[in-house]
Design goal:
Layout lengths: L3 E2 L1 H4 L5 H13 L11 E5 L3 E10 L2 E9 L11 E9 L5 E6 H20 L6 E6 L3 H13 L2 E7 L3 H13 L4 E3 L10 E4 L18 E4 L12 H6 L1 E4 L2 H7 L1 H8 L8 E4 H6 L12 E4 L4 H20 L1
Parallel strand pairs: 1-6, 7-8, 7-10, 8-9, 10-11, 11-14, 12-13, 12-14
Antiparallel strand pairs: 2-3, 3-4, 4-5, 5-6
Helix pairs in contact: 2-3, 2-10, 3-4, 3-10
C-alpha cells in the first residue's frame, strides 16, 4: 500500500509561499513549461468534466486525475474532486496518493503568488479587489498576503453571504476588509479573479494603468473573467504561450474579436522568474497574468508536499 495523504494530513505542511518557492525552483532548474503535456479533458454525462494532467521532471513523475462537477456545490459537495499519484521517476514506482482537490487549492494560489512577486507594485500597502468567495478566493487571499502588504481588501461575490464571510475572514488576517461591487476595480492596485464566471466580471476600462490583474478561474477557450478592453490595454503574462493559446479564453475571445493577435503576449512566468524579462509595475498600462493551470505546477507542488510530509514524520 502506498501512503495516502489526505487534505487533513497535508494541512499546515506547506504555505502558499513555500509552494511558490517550489515552482520558482522548478523554473530556475531549467523546466520548460512549453514542453509540458497538454491537459486531457473528457466530458462526463451530467455536465461534469474529467481532467488528466501528467508531468515528469527531475527524479519524479505524476498525474492528477481531477473532476470538475459544477452541480456539486448544490449537493453540498466540492466542485473540484480528484487525486494525485506521485511516482519515483527512474522506476515509476508509486510513492504517494495525494488529495487532488487540496493540491489544486494550494497550487493555483501559489502560481498567482509567484507571478505577483514579479508584477505587483512593491514598497507600499496595496488595495486588493478580490472576485469570488469559494476555496480559491480564500487561498488567493492568503497567497497575496504572503507576498504583499495590503491596505484594504474588497470582496466582490455573487453570493452576498459568502462575500461577507470572506471579508470577515480577511479582517482576522490584518487588513481592513469589506464587500463591494465591480466598480471598485477603479481604485485597485491588485485585482484577483477566482470565479466560475464565463463572462467578464468588470469593465476593463476602469482598471488603473499601474494595476495588476490576475485571472485564474477558467481553462476553457470560450470562458473568461476579463474583457477585451482590459486585454487590449494590458501587458499580458501567461504560464506558457502554447497553453494560453489553447485554453485561455480571456485571450482567445479577444483575439476572435480582432482586438489582439497571438503576439500580444508580453512574456511568461518563466521569463519573469529567470530574469529574461523583468516585470514590475508599468505606469503606462495594467499588467494581466492569465493562468490556466498546468501539470508541471501540480508536480512541483506535490513533490514539495511529499517531502514536507516525510520530514514531518521524521520529527
Amino acid at each position: 500500500m502506498i501512503p495516502q495523504l489526505s487534505a487533513a494530513g497535508l494541512a499546515g505542511l506547506l504555505t502558499p509561499a513555500d509552494a511558490a518557492d517550489a515552482l520558482a525552483d522548478a523554473l530556475l532548474g531549467g523546466l520548460d513549461p512549453e514542453s509540458c503535456p497538454q491537459r486531457t479533458a473528457l466530458p462526463v454525462p451530467g455536465g461534469g468534466e474529467l481532467l488528466l494532467m501528467p508531468a515528469a521532471s527531475g527524479t519524479y513523475a505524476g498525474v492528477k486525475i481531477a473532476g470538475v462537477a459544477p452541480h456539486n456545490p448544490a449537493r453540498g459537495l466540492p466542485r473540484i474532486t480528484g487525486s494525485y499519484l506521485l511516482l519515483d521517476g527512474p522506476t515509476l514506482r508509486p510513492l504517494a496518493l495525494l488529495d487532488g482537490a487540496a493540491l489544486t487549492a494550494l497550487r493555483t494560489p501559489a502560481v498567482s503568488a509567484l507571478a505577483l512577486r514579479h508584477l505587483a507594485p512593491a514598497g507600499r500597502p496595496l488595495r486588493l479587489v478580490l472576485f469570488g468567495s469559494g476555496p480559491q478566493a480564500y487561498g488567493h487571499l492568503e497567497a497575496v498576503l504572503a507576498v504583499r502588504e495590503l491596505a484594504e481588501v474588497v470582496v466582490v461575490a455573487r453570493d452576498p453571504e459568502g462575500g461577507e464571510r470572506l471579508a470577515a475572514h480577511a479582517r482576522t488576517l490584518g487588513p481592513p476588509a469589506r464587500t463591494g461591487t465591480a466598480g471598485d476595480v477603479a481604485g485597485a492596485d491588485l485585482v484577483v479573479c477566482c470565479t466560475t464566471a464565463r463572462e467578464p466580471l468588470f469593465d476593463g476600462r476602469l482598471v488603473g494603468p499601474g494595476a495588476t490583474v490576475v485571472a485564474v478561474g477558467s481553462h476553457e477557450p470560450s470562458a473568461r473573467e476579463t474583457d477585451t478592453a482590459l486585454v487590449r490595454r494590458a501587458a499580458v503574462y501567461v504560464e506558457s504561450r502554447a497553453a494560453a493559446l489553447r485554453e485561455a479564453g480571456d485571450l482567445l475571445v479577444a483575439e476572435a474579436e480582432g482586438a489582439i493577435g497571438p503576439g500580444h503576449i508580453t512574456g511568461t512566468l518563466a521569463d519573469l522568474v529567470t530574469g529574461r524579462m523583468p516585470g514590475g509595475a508599468r505606469p503606462s498600462c495594467p499588467q494581466l497574468f492569465k493562468s490556466v493551470g498546468m501539470a508541471w505546477e501540480d508536480l512541483a507542488v506535490a513533490v514539495a508536499w511529499f517531502r514536507a510530509a516525510g520530514a514531518s514524520r521524521e520529527t
